[in-house]
Amino acid sequence: MSTLLECKDLTKCYGKKTAIDHINLAIESGHIIGLLGPNGSGKTTLIKMINGLLAPTSGSIFMQQNPIGAESKKHISYLPDHTYLNMNERVRDIIRYFSDFYEDFDEKRAYDMLGKLQIDASDRLKTMSKGTKEKVQLILVMSRHADLYILDEPIAGVDPAARDFILNIILSNYEPEASILISTHLIADIENILDEVIFIDHGQIRLTASVDDIRMNNGKSVDALFREVYRC
Ligand SMILES: Nc1ncnc2c1ncn2[C@@H]1O[C@H](COP(=O)(O)OP(=O)(O)OP(=O)(O)O)[C@@H](O)[C@H]1O
């Protein structure tokens, strides 16, 4: 096990608003980590900085000892909270673009997952339901052989019956040495696949713990602990 990602004294301000407040964080390889926090706690801001889409106000981020940049992007597969795909495209054409763009993209894996979810690769995105579009985007992201997968709300639009199936697809399509950082409000649905959680609040880390420790020490599920910690 080695450190994949490190945030050192990381801060992001939007004008006078501090969205991320002097965060220190390390993500080890081979773990599935839930990034959990209430609305506006800073999850998406943190994720965007890790993906090089926002510049920190101060502090630094290192991916495999390198600062965030072109090299780190080769090793991070990112599912954003909003789609960036062209809705007019057919799935098979998008797969071809991804295959051309990312050296680590595995077309066979993408078609296997599409088949399991009975999604027709000749369909255009704009003809699909919101949940199916989300499944396609998740498949694209999980079809890369990345070292770190960052999923911002991966199952929000997927119906409850399909969620377990999607989670299994996530689990069966990443290498044991890779890590997955998942931001979600659907904690109860996802906590069974998590190894660790990070609770974030007002841009600060409130708790980092293994899911087993939470269950043993608190006698609670992660969902129950979250509701207790963040009770309004
Ligand atoms: N572009 C922006 N300009 C100004 N303030 C912003 C901007 N983006 C986010 N913020 C503020 O930064 C804080 C953190 O927002 P962020 O979107 O990172 O939270 P989040 O935890 O992802 O929220 P949610 O769970 O609702 O998606 C919030 O107070 C938000 O209003």
From TrEMBL:
- The organism's superkingdom is given as Bacteria
For this UniProt record, the keywords arranged alphabetically read as follows:
ATP-binding, Nucleotide-binding, Transport
Q: Name one Pfam family in it.
A: ABC_tran
Where in this chain does the record put each ABC transporter domain?
A: 5-227
What CDD domains does the record point to?
Answer: ABC_DR_subfamily_A
Alphabetized GO MF terms: ATP binding; ATP hydrolysis activity
PROSITE patterns for the chain: ABC_TRANSPORTER_2
Q: Which InterPro entries match?
A: AAA+_ATPase, ABC_transporter-like_ATP-bd, ABC_Transporter_VariousFunc, P-loop_NTPase
This protein is called what? ABC transporter
